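Lab notebook, bench 4. The sequencing result for the construct came back, and we need a structural model before the next group meeting so we can plan mutations. Quick request posted to the team channel:

Model the 3D structure of this chain.
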Amino acid sequence: MKSRVVAAPARARCGQWATIGDVNAATVKADPALVGAVDLARQAVVDEAGPGLVGEHLGVQMEADRIAAHLFACSNPAYEGWHWAVTLVRASRAKAVTVNDVVLLPGAGSLVAPPWVPWSERVRAGDLGPGDVLPTEPDDVRLAAGLTGEEDLESVSSQSPLQPGAWEIGLGRVRVLSAVGREHAAHRWVDGDFGPAAAMARQAANSCATCGFMLPVGGPLGQEFAICANEFAPADGRVVALSFGCGAHSEVEADQPVRATAAYDATGWDPLDLADLGHS
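Done. Here's the predicted structure in token form:
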């Protein structure tokens, strides 16, 4: 049976500890034999970890009838704030106390590993590399069933008319982008590096909506986004919000033509050998 004590800070004592389970430690009658077996509990930790890693005795708490937990400070500098928990038990009608378990538990403020997160929830944009495969869930709300054949088209035409943008033919594709998927993409692009709130857009005098390098896109997102086709722009080949802008706008013209001017270096000189010039 493993200890079920949750370690408290090193300054805490028995009355401040908490236990996990149905047994309320405050209602369990103290067992003098278990409470007094401090040396036995310490020796169990020494046998487990070595004498140099066991600190002061922090107290004892009854976990259940004839089950007690002794806590000792951990002296290992790599486990600051952690505690050794030793579970002692005594069989019914027996006087001998035995060691059930020795574990190292974290206290409040101890450095512990973060909660485990499933791989599917840890993946972020940009994590996918060459050769990686990212499966799509069958019920992904970003996708909807596409119309893949003539029979599907005939069934749709027999139904009530659909509003523009409410469905997509998607020939050759089992699923197409759903309204939720479009909304997610639109929010992501507007809030991204090529949206109106980007530093580049805030400093620009003109927006992409009036730029000659803007390539319009079709579909429901065409009224909000386009593709940049200016090789000198930071968004070249990227989807940009029409409210984005940069200094490479097609209508930006220089106030004055750039003229080349002569440059003179007045801070140094070149040594000349006058003998080579025929002078005496």
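Residues 1-24, 162-166 have pLDDT under 50 and may be disordered.
Will bring this to the meeting.
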